[in-house]
């Protein structure tokens, strides 16, 4: 296969035009509808390997599996370098809808594209173009018809001018592509470094970073990349941090997990307990109890350990100043004769509790012969963690 006289190693390179994948120059969403030929499809652009190639009802396999075993009917393999997708032989001639993000194009020069016409001869596109030009010249030299000669000459001149323009345009695109490749490398390369515990440790651990250096901050899960001027956050890996358990740390420490796990539904409740040992005398009972939270009374229970022959009436009273006292039930709490527990026939009418409210018991009768009285007032706190 002959090559142009002026061919040198880098005079006729493959041109690669990449997008940057940044907000100002993002990868574009592509939907290629192509037919499987020789068990493969050639994508119109090079796909982004992070986004992957997606085909409805089919699964992508990796390179190791592809080279070790045959593709299954519902599997495909993607060559992310050249933009080829390989399918099972049963998929031959099927039309595929392929979704991916396009990174850009790989443009091949004419000297690198070969044509095979079914014989033993193989020609490059460059040779075909040059041969066509020679045939046009021969046709012009041999014709006796001036008008035909003139028309063909005009066509040749126009084609030559067009080819010249394309050559100039290709040269400029090659220069632009080189700059784009260089810029793409500088803006996308990731050179991973050891993680740090906090963002402030980055400058201490990497005082002289190079472009592309990437590290992850342990406490936030955010990865930072040095762009030549500053550490820029590029993604957050919080979703990859495991949940905490009694054994390992995760989104919280294992000690915190154990502490939270042991919190019961009763953590938002407080109970005021009055105990009157032995004989129950008439009048105001000690002690007076000051409640230190805002809340709501949800339950009152009273009991005696030694039953009496007479009912035991009890008034639960509340005050804000130790002077003015009000009953918090619509009727006294009654423990019937020969009973240990109250009969729950009362209603709590003053359920709201403010921080600093004072509670006490008042016994209106002196005929009580029951002993060891206990009164529990359960209060649901307004500020609950559950």
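Sequence proposed for the structure above (386 residues):
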């Amino acid at each position: 296969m002959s090559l142009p006289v002026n061919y040198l190693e880098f005079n006729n390179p493959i041109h690669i035009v990449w997008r940057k994948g940044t907000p100002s120059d993002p990868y574009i969403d592509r939907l290629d509808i192509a037919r499987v030929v020789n068990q493969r499809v050639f994508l119109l652009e090079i796909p982004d390997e992070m986004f992957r190639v997606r085909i409805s009802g089919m699964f992508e396999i990796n390179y190791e599996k592809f080279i070790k075993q045959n593709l299954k009917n519902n599997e495909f393999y993607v060559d992310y370098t050249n933009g080829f997708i390989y399918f099972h032989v049963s998929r031959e001639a099927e039309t595929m809808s392929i979704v991916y993000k396009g990174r850009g194009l790989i443009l091949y020069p004419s000297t690198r594209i070969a044509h095979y016409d079914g014989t033993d001869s193989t020609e490059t596109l460059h040779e075909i173009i040059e041969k066509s030009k020679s045939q046009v010249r021969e046709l012009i030299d041999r014709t006796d018809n001036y008008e035909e000669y003139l028309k063909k000459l005009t066509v040749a001149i126009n084609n030559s001018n067009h080819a010249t323009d394309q050559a100039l345009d290709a040269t400029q695109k090659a220069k632009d592509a080189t700059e784009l490749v260089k810029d793409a490398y500088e803006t996308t390369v990731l050179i991973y470094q050891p993680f740090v515990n906090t963002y402030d440790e980055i400058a201490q651990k990497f005082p002289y970073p190079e472009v592309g250096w990437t590290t992850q901050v342990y406490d936030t899960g955010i990865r930072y990349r040095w762009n030549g001027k500053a550490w820029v956050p590029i993604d957050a890996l919080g979703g990859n941090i495991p949940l905490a358990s009694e054994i390992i740390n995760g989104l919280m420490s294992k000690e915190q997990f154990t502490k939270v796990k042991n919190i019961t539904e009763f953590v938002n409740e407080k109970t005021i307990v009055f105990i009157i040992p032995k004989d129950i005398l008439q009048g105001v009972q000690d002690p007076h109890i000051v409640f230190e939270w805002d809340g709501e009374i949800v339950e009152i229970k009273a009991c005696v350990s030694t039953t009496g022959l007479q009912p035991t009436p009890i008034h639960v009273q509340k005050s804000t100043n130790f002077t003015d006292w009000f009953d918090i039930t619509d009727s006294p709490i009654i423990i019937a004769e020969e009973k240990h527990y109250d009969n729950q026939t009362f209603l709590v009418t003053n359920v709201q509790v403010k921080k600093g409210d004072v509670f006490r018991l008042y016994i209106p009768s002196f005929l009580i012969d029951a002993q060891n009285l206990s009164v529990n007032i359960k209060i649901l706190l307004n500020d609950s963690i559950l």
